[in-house]
Amino acid sequence: MALEKVLDDIEREGELRGRLEGKIEGKLEGKIEGEMEGELKGKEQVAMRMIEEQLDADLISRVTGFSLDKIDQLRARGNVETE
Question: Where are the domains positioned within the chain?
Answer without folding.
Answer: 2-77
